[in-house]
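Q: I'm writing up a methods section and want to include an example of the input and output format. Could you take the sequence below and give the corresponding predicted structure tokens, formatted cleanly so I can copy it straight into the document?
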Amino acid sequence: MRTYALALAVAAAVMMLFAAMSSQATQKAYAHFEHFGHYNAKGDGVGPYYAYEQLDPDYAKPGEPAAIQFSVQDLDGRDTKDIVAMVEVYSGATGERLAAFPWTKQDTGDFQVFYTFPDLGYYQIVLSVATGPISNLNGVDPPRATLSSTSGCNCDRAVFNAAISNNFGEIWNAALLASVLFPLAIIGAVLGLVYRRKRKQLHANSSEEFVKWGILLLAIAGGLVHFAIYSEHASLRLEYSIFLIVAGAMQVSYGLMYILITMVGAEESRASPRQYYRKTVAANLFGLLGTGVLLGLYTYAVIFPPPLSPNNVPEDVDLAGILAKSAEAILVVGILYLMRIEKRRLAGYLAETPSKT
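A: Here is the clean output for your methods example:
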């Protein structure tokens, strides 16, 4: 039983990890960016539109080709078509215009131009969107001292900043990875010490303990998956990424909260079993209801258009989503099993010492 429980927990965790990696590789923000940048990315209003800009790669280096990507949407987040736009690149240090891409009629508001930034430093990227007839279609406007000025142009303009460096991307990614792995390493070390100290006390209940810790680690893994995929949903709707961050935080909180109750309340479970039981019920209901809501929302989103969807179409069903939600379904069953274990443990304590509350 112990081997089976451990294998089940490991399999579920692997499913979560594979789902996160698959989602990172395949998740698309429909009709907008396929990847939402964390750096050199910004949004700003352009007349009746809202434009997002980012670089690909995020951490562009001098002398290396980069794509300057735009997603021009209406104010409700819907796609735009047949817009006429011009793109310019200015030096942040000298104000000199370094490149200009002529007025072009774009089939959709999602387009890109390619440019190689020559030096380290800051640059301004100017997006101009026509609001009326353009006399020099396929031509460029003269450079301006005030980049956002629309004098003599039937257009609206937005100015975006870009920072070009050699090593900032590697430093940022290393710091982010360390900020995730270091706390997990501490948690793993503490749990290992606790298990080592108590393993002689497990004996008959060892299989239940394996299942319990596997479920809690699965909850934490599920939260980390939401942290891994939230940015890919940000370009579809910013609210989606906020929801995923909150959902991930709640799942991680549930796992850590139950671990703390188990570790700190070991003595309380015998001295005051009813009080300890009420705490575990509250924690498990928190995890159960939260995971149930996530499963319900996913089911709704693949059948009907999700709330606030700019495209008014259901989400695609992909392998990563199926694996992630299958693991969450296992988590629901596991939480119910945990509640059964705690109830049985309470009954055992009360049978041994009926006078204890």
